[in-house]
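Lecture notes, part 5. Sequence design as translation. It can be helpful to think of inverse folding as translation between two languages: the language of shapes and the language of residues. The source text, in structure tokens, appears below.
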């Protein structure tokens, strides 16, 4: 049976993860969250007191890293890690390392399972030939409200105007960076995730039925 890869791209806090989990659970796809890889690397660098500007040290650190774990962890979702992840994501050598890890993981596991992979450049760069590409569209105010609630729920102190400002800044970084900027991938279906999740599920279900 032909194994399928579905890609999900979209800006910060657009609900990519929730949509990927929905597909993963309902259609038994394995879920790979590429943001986890950027966040885990960011966390490791913070622990080593390596600053994002010090790309020579980051390069050296990556060279001795054999692999990076794909395991999701709620503790990687703090604002400090989010900011560091978006800063190191501008480096081509960081993206190369993470893209190679993703491709290797999928190559080794695609025989056994379909995959849904979410991130910022998955349909546009990493898996250009995916069977279905989705791009998640949500306005920035809705995204800020959702991220604020997420942070409050996980016990982090949080101020809504600051979250909105951070989201705008991260969008700017994600969309304007030279390496693999966030774009709507060629051939992607746009999912409107501004309203209830039931409405989002309807859009997804229709596309999945046509696969
Ligand atoms: O999706 P996320 O918020 O967990 O991603 C964390 C950061 O990693 C985000 O600021 C941008 C970066 N990222 C990326 O550049 N490319 C990806 N495929 C996934 C994440």
């Amino acid at each position: 049976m032909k194994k399928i890869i579905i890609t999900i791209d979209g800006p910060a806090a657009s609900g990519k993860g929730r949509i990927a989990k929905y597909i993963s659970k309902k259609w038994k796809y394995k879920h790979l969250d590429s943001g986890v890889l950027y966040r885990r690397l960011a966390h490791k660098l913070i622990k080593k007191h390596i600053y994002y500007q010090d790309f020579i040290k980051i390069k050296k650190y990556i060279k001795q890293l054999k692999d990076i774990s794909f395991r999701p962890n709620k503790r990687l979702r703090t604002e400090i890690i989010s900011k560091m992840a978006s800063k190191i994501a501008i480096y081509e050598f960081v993206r190369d390392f993470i893209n190679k890890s993703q491709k290797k993981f999928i190559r080794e596991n695609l025989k056994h399972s379909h995959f849904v992979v979410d991130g910022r450049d998955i349909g546009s760069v990493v898996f250009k030939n995916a069977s279905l590409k989705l791009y998640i569209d949500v306005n920035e105010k809705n995204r800020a409200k959702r991220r604020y609630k997420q942070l409050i729920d996980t016990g982090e102190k949080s101020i809504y105007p600051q979250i909105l400002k951070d989201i705008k800044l991260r969008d700017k970084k994600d969309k304007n960076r030279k390496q693999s900027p966030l774009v709507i991938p060629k051939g992607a279906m746009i999912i409107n995730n501004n309203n209830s999740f039931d409405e989002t599920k309807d859009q997804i279900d229709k596309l999945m039925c046509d696969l």
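The translated text above is only one of many valid answers, since several sequences can fold into similar shapes. The two ends are 13 Å apart (CA to CA).
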